[in-house]
């Protein structure tokens, strides 16, 4: 549990809020490249960190992110003309480039120098790693883009999906570092299947670790503080001699990496939870294979709606959502799966949204299996307080510190998982 | 009229409000049995008295009513698994029984005793009298279920419908004890029919009393305070020698019984108005015949949409509602009926909702025909203030006091209606 | 820009606000005659100046505008019976005439004189000039109806349309007096057409002045204070010897007249922006020809959706609206028109709504082309402050002062436009 004051401090990210200032020290992914497919294409309207913004790709292919409101008389630039290296307001023709400079002001006399005095709020933006990012903080603190494992890979090694989640970003990240819930939320184990072994679906290839999460549902957590965030290990009993470790990466401020297969060389999954406002966030789900391109079959599987990539409409609104109770199928829930909700992404989303858009943490009862969540909150609060005292975040200023990976390993009980998994956890091919 | 302060005091029922505390001394009906049809069926999510709750019927057929939010990390138990005598959260598998005890906590180590320290808010619930009830007050004050006339009857003697009403419970009850409005709202008398007697519909059998409500539109009210609530008589002139009395029962806190036919042995109608939140309530409409089962024809008539049972969708939302102006038919209104709205229930609902969800009583102008409403408000306020001073409600603690009935009688002008109707008003067959 | 305090003072119009009191000194148009087509027709529910009202046409054809809420128990009179010279509440039959007197109270005893003590809020209303108007101010200050140019004309000389606009009335009026935006918002000039002269549409007859707004996009403004409001002239270079003047009329509090063709004898266009609440207003668009009836062809053109008359549904909600981004067509915007939005009315509406329902004027940057807007705000604030000090508005009390017209003229550079256009600006045939 967390006091209401700390809860507010931790979750709210609008301009001027402490956590908002902290997050604005990082590059923030917010669009898919497909949303700005070509120079001079239609602009995109978006809320980000509680700010109304318009993004556009200019004639040179550079990306601009500006205030939604024209500084003249506040008409929306979403309806603007994206033309000749700038976005032009349709009301009186004022035009701004990606730097926020007013480059044309045809409604004023030519001899007027008013144009040179007017700027629009503009944020630097980059296309990188299969996403479009922007930096909303002070210019003097702008870091390099984070060298997160999936970013420098070619597109062929990566699948990225986007969906809106109707809950605050923190409770969404909390779901991503909670290695305990996979024994339940994503499980296919039900009393019916337990009592009717002949009805159980055939075991899938490589699903041995799933059995460990089934047989040991109360993992022991160890959380290590790192430069970039947290290294979270959840230990489960495998057999008499061995432990099964799931090692999750939490990269500040809102990235997570899910432990994948115990066999090396397989794909990894991860998420970014980006605040839209205090009650919703963009979920970017990334599947990547550092070693090789995805096969056509694998890509198809990613878009099947069964895994972490939720199916959405063209506005990135999930087809399963709170308005339709995530299409819960009570028969499925009774007999076949733990939730009756289809899709790992949908299961996560449904649960996290069901806690209320900004959950009331003073009403929680945390146990030892919530160690990672407790550590994450403590870290977030500390990072934010540090910044208020003038101490910059190490993670924000050291993009190379992001070169890590999640992993799961099966090791002898007397081995040190940090040593055994060291190779897997470093982001090197 | 009522001061804004008294209006708030009287109408708001959330946890901690004075009226909320008062209502929580009573058993409160809130579901139809059809909503929890069998053991281990899907749970039902509901708002009741401003609290978000989940109801479930467990493996034994016992009913649980618990907080919507799992006390662990506040995922909604609506998505939970109703299995093996408890409801299990799908997030981390915590399981609660109908008493609110945590009976399984598989995410924590077996040796942990955390499970024994965690409870969820849980309210006792019963199926009784064709409804599911819960008790939300202090355990030491829990009374027996009220012995209201329609409750102990077999199902065959009773029809119950449920609909949401988008107005505060008090103004809804006020409609139920307002014996004056039947001369207008439910009337078929219009200037057009007055001036065109040949267009009038044929008189229905047993509709003599309707004529009295037509010919005398300003009834004289006498309101008697009773142990259980109010006995409300509205006197109309019948003929030179006789009065027509409509005697309505108001049973605290929110039950009403409508005077039926002057012939004894006929069916009675009544309502319960149960606060969902401060701006909406459940309306349960009950038709019952204490003396014999309803015929098939009578049941069909109850569900025809013409009487007090409104037609609804499967979420108990009326088909006629504020979004479609209650399907008012202006031609019907002009020529045939007073409102142009079909259905007695719909007429009541439309009018009561049109006052605003929580009506502004300081803007009223009450007359002598509002005597029952004035008495009801005074009684509610007094009961509530009494409880704040430690005096328990007689009605809440004496369920046998509810054994009364409404009636209408046609008596000599010098007779005492209380004596003449005594037999009819007692709930005995 | 305007301080937040002045912005609130200027925009909010509910009962008791200073600007609300000021506006209530004027007759206010709010319905089309087609909404109350005949005596005893169904009443119309409307919000006006933040008050919930019901309008009805009584048996005599007189129009009543009364409080939405019956003063008895506050049921909505929208569901009332419009019959025999009054509107009757369906709850208990209380009936009110257009003066707000209670003319029947059948629920109370005949000997009661309660009826004579009850009144309902009622405003005088008139049908005039193709609109229905009401006066919401103090009786002792009620003026005559304004003699605005289009009002006394026969219907054949006039087309009036109505649509809801989801923005505050002031920012809507500001659009109407902004003679600068026509060089952009309503323009067909795009970089594509500039670079591809062969793709340009053929010049329309009489479109010479459009070329001036294209070639000179930064008009010089002169704003004259007048008794009735403002006379706004926007001067553009025509050729070496001549100026093109567009002269807009602003008639207090919310009427505008658009400069039409430079040829005399042509039609004029104008608007009324009537506050519904602080976040929306009715737009009445009026096209009129003082000299002759519209031809069938002209009427058809007015309803084509290309001009100032937006296409709406039967509730006067525009078909192009914020929910569908005003049906913006990005291909059209890129190649053919400045906005990609069809219809002059829709272009204005889309832009004005996009500023936010009550725009934040402290965030503006006004230039010399905003002179008329600055003058309008200053005038509004002054008029309102005057009234607070007891000085009545000249415009409100002198309906004959509205007899003016907008015009555009092409004159020698050394001519005085006021002299040259004097004949055109006076509302005389």
Keywords:
homotrimer, 429 residues, alpha+beta, 8-stranded antiparallel beta sheet, 4-stranded antiparallel beta sheet, 19 strands, globular
What is this structure's SSE topology?
Three copies of one chain form a homotrimer.
Chain A: H1 4-11, H2 18-23, E1 27-31, E2 44-48, E3 51-57, E4 63-67, E5 81-82, E6 87-88, E7 95-96, E8 102-104, H3 114-117, E9 122-123, E10 125-128, E11 131-135, E12 158-165, H4 169-176, H5 191-195, H6 208-215, E13 220-225, E14 229-237, E15 242-251, E16 255-258, E17 268-277, E18 280-288, H7 296-302, H8 330-335, H9 344-354, H10 371-388, H11 394-397, E19 407-412, H12 417-420, H13 422-425
Antiparallel strand pairs in A: 1-11, 2-3, 3-4, 4-9, 5-6, 6-7, 7-8, 10-11, 12-18, 13-14, 14-15, 15-16, 15-19, 16-17, 17-18
Helix pairs in contact in A: 4-9
Strand content of chain A: 15-25%
Number of helices of chain A: 13
Assembly level: homotrimer
- Report, as a whole number of angstroms, the end-to-end distance of chain A: 40 Å
Mean pLDDT of chain A: 95
The global form of chain A is globular
- Given helix and strand content, the structural type of chain A is alpha+beta
- As a percent range, the share of helical residues of chain A equals 10-25%
Integer-rounded radius of gyration of chain A: 23 Å
Biggest pleated sheet of chain A: 8 strands, antiparallel
What does this structure look like?
- The structure is a homotrimer of 429-residue chains.
- The first copy, chain A, is α+β, with helices and mostly antiparallel strands.
- Chain A has helices at 4-11, 18-23, 114-117, 169-176, 191-195, 208-215, 296-302, 330-335, 344-354, 371-388, 394-397, 417-420, 422-425, and strands spanning 27-31, 44-48, 51-57, 63-67, 81-82, 87-88, 95-96, 102-104, 122-123, 125-128, 131-135, 158-165, 220-225, 229-237, 242-251, 255-258, 268-277, 280-288, 407-412.
- In chain A, the strands form four sheets. In chain A, strands 12, 13, 14, 15, 16, 17, 18 and 19 form an eight-stranded antiparallel sheet that branches.
- In chain A, helix 4 packs across helix 9 (344-354).
- Chain A is globular and about 85 Å long.
- The two termini of chain A are 40 Å apart.
- Chains A and B meet through helix 8 and helix 9 of A and loops of B.
């Amino acid at each position: 549990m967390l006091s209401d004051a700390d809860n507010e401090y931790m979750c709210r990210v609008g301009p001027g809020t402490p956590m908002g200032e902290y997050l604005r020290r990082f590059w923030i992914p917010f669009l898919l490249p497909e949303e700005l497919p070509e120079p001079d294409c239609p602009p995109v309207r978006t809320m980000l960190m509680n700010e109304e913004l318009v993004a556009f790709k200019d004639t040179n292919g550079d990306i601009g992110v500006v205030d939604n409101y024209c500084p003249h008389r506040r008409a929306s630039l979403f309806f603007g003309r994206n033309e000749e290296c700038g976005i032009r307001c349709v009301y009186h023709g004022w035009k701004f480039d990606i730097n926020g400079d007013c480059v044309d002001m045809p409604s004023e006399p030519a001899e007027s120098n008013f144009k040179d005095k007017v700027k629009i709020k503009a944020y630097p933006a980059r296309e990188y790693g299969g996403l479009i990012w922007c930096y909303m903080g002070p210019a003097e603190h702008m870091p390099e883009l984070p060298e997160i494992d999936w970013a420098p890979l070619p597109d062929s090694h990566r699948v990225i999906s986007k969906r809106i989640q109707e809950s605050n970003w923190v409770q969404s990240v909390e779901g991503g570092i909670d290695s305990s819930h996979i024994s339940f939320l994503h499980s296919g184990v039900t009393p019916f299947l337990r009592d009717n072994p002949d009805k159980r679906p055939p075991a899938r290839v490589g699903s041995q670790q799933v059995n460990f999460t089934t047989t040991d549902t109360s993992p022991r957590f160890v959380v290590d503080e790192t430069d970039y965030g947290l290294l979270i290990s959840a230990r489960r009993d495998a057999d008499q001699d061995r432990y099964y470790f799931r090692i999750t990466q939490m990269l500040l401020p809102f990235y997570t990496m899910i432990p994948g297969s115990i066999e090396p060389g397989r794909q990894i999954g991860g998420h970014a939870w980006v605040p839209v406002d205090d009650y919703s966030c963009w979920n970017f789900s990334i599947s990547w294979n550092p070693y090789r391109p995805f096969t056509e079959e694998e890509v198809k599987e990613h878009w099947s709606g069964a895994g972490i990539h939720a199916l959405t409409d063209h506005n990135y609104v999930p087809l399963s959502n709170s308005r339709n109770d995530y299409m819960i199928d009570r028969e499925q829930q009774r007999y076949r799966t733990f939730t009756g909700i289809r899709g790992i992404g949908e299961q996560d989303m449904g649960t996290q949204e069901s806690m209320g858009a900004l959950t009331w943490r003073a009403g929680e009862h945390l146990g030892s299996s919530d160690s990672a969540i407790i550590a994450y909150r403590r870290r977030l609060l500390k990072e934010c307080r540090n910044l208020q005292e003038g101490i910059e975040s190490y993670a924000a200023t050291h993009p190379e510190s992001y070169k890590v990976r999640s992993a799961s390993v099966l090791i002898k009980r007397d081995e040190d998982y940090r040593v055994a998994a060291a190779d897997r956890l470093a982001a090197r091919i």
